[in-house]
# Entry
Amino acid sequence: MKDSKSRADVDVILIGSGVMSANLGALLKCIDPSLKIELYEVTGELAQESSNGWNNAGTGHAGICEVSYTPDWGEDGKVKVGKAIEIFEEFEQTKQFWAYAVREGMIDNPSEFINAVPHVSFVYGQEQVDFLKSRYEGMSAHPFFSSMEYTEDPEKIREWAPLLIEGREDMPVAATRMLAGTDVNFGDLSRKLIEWLGRQEGCSFHTQHRVTDLNRCGEGWELKVRDLQSGKTLTRKASFVFIGAGGGSLPLLQKAGVSEIKGYGGFPIGGQWLICEKPEIVDRHEAKVYGLSPGAAPTMAVPHLDSRFLEGKKALLFGPYAAWTTKFLHKGGSFWDLPGSIKFHNWLTLLKVGIGNLPLVKYLVQQGLQSMNTRLKELRNFYPDAQAGDWKLIDAGIRVQAIKKEDGDAGIVHFGTEVVTTSDKSVSALLGASPGASVCVNIVLEVARKCFGELLGKEEAQRKLKEMIPTHDVDLRSIQGDEEIARYREWSRLAEDALGLSGH
# Structure
């Protein structure tokens, strides 16, 4: 940190208590224990928006089963698998940091937030089968996915996930499986890390506190923070501000008036799940099963049938079903959020997106108007014998898809996570979508490198990073040769041992 910033109350203020803020705060404190860090959360509990266990798929996204991460055919007539390899590497880094946190006693009981669950891709119809076969051939050639299995045999699929086959008409089917998949409760993980952070010297977290304004103050920022219990407004000065407030990030950036946000907009997409908690059904399915996305559906709406471990019990979730909304937050959001985000600098971008994505808008409206029978029809594409009485509809939170201009055009960021950082490196904000939570450590590490370059350039910081994330400076995507592969697998084994994932 620069000496000129020392007049700030704290070094870092984190806005929002989701998985990004939690991991960034913990990472920075580990690297430099002298840092003073404060976190402010508007709700009464930590991690209640996108990171909440019921508001996301809970998939440890590693590119294994998510066919939406490999949607394109290459010029050679084979499915392009580079993005899946990239995501796998980033999830490996994330697991390494979580494993370090467990070993160091920062967090306990890893089974409360991460569990081994096989990841399965499942398709039907000859065109989809051909796609999945090409995807498997490309992915299994890489050491990351060497244990991936492929089959077109319905009986083998029945062994992996019987619900997919029972009652199904005779048609071409195919599936891939890797046992090394995970189910992650990002909410529980976030709470554990934030509670640890709050116990460290110079650090604290505060619920029911809303950041109402951000203004430049020298080389740092002055924040107005309203205590929702007392009604009082606090003034806090920070050298660096990270905005990880989910749907609330865009409005806060607009309040800050940073030039980097010009042209950006947000497109909120609501979500819902069908959930089954009947033991006689739940206990027969042990996998996260992903299929192919319906035509106009956004990436977050790719259908999947998932085993979930939430609040100490197992359930099955199917979905998500997308829905039209104008709210940016699931809790505390307003139907005026979207209209209020329209500014002079982004209205044209939003208009272009609306005109250029009419199929998506139509899809969202239709999804929101679906009957239960229609939703069950989609479920039966995965689980033919599904009965209406065994399932109920629940909310799945809200994602605000980032909208930005690229080469003069406007488009929705369907894939990836957008991080906006000011030119002076004093503010960084997350405007993200899938697979953000799963690769959160990779994302916040990049934020740290960009905004705390002086700190991370120190020899001690690099030593600490290597201890926490052994592969942070290793290009795993291009590993080859027995020695390199063996070294990677040892790193992976150590992380899985600490997280209780070994033996799958």
